Amino acid sequence: MDIQGAAPAPREIDTSGLPMDQAQALVLDELRALTERAEPFAAILLMPAPPEGRTPAASASGTSTADRVRTLKLIRPGLTALCRGLAFVAPADIPAERAEAIHSGEQLWGCPTIATQDVTAARAWAGARVGG
Question: What is the 3-state secondary structure (H, E, C) of the chain?
Fold first, then answer.
């Protein structure tokens, strides 16, 4: 049996306990690392609950919305080439703009996406995307 040909398990990125700006930055960093490996992958993204109020454009972590958009633009070709799917696990009460970003799928991320509140369903979908 060829072990090298075995499909990798989906990567699970748990940002559920982080503030939203840190969660978004971590997701992009992890996705960049996955694209740099130059191997097909799928990821399960455990997203945090929405903040009580609006988040500022720049955060304590120093990342701004503009920085995150630039990062996504840089890694998008790798996502398009290598990402078999992103499964977002998010609370039901996420803000409309976050829901829109998650559901925009290939337009924004460059690869198929799903959004669910069920981590088991997300794991099953992502596993099927990489053949695992």
Answer: CCCCCCCCCCEEEECCCCCHHHHHHHHHHHHHHHHHCCCCEEEEEECCCCCCCCCCCECCCCCEHHHHHHHHHHHHHHHHHHEEEEEEECCCCCCHHHHHHHHCCHHHHCCCEEEECCHHHHHHHHHHHCCC
